[in-house]
Sequence to fold (143 residues):
Amino acid sequence: MRAVIQRVTRAAARVDGAIVGQITEPGLVVLVAVTHHDGIVQVEHTARKIADMRILHDERSPVEAGAPVLVISQFTLYADVSKGRRPTWNDAAPRMAAKPLLDALVDALIGHGLTVATGVFGAQMEIEMVADGPVTIVLESVP
Fold:
């Protein structure tokens, strides 16, 4: 599981112009991709890291700050551009495997006490966010 975590002052995900998920106060946007070998171990590791990571102001974690999180599925984080000019997506898990793990990640974050908004899995989305810092962290879960 790979996640790109961005500290934001606000963010929204839209599908066909309608807001499907948003956070209106400082928090995190988490772009998440699932790969073939991911399972509950990677979900729990990623959720714990996101919840406890001290990247908010005054070195607080999202749990400590009560900060919201907007989770967006983004299989393109597993793009392979090592050959040619066209990315391949071979390392991204198929929809049937990825969606349940993304749902489990959202549930795990809620289990840590976080308020979580989401985009729509597999949808063409417009993501609007105001970066804070900017602070961007790439998190790779343990295999």
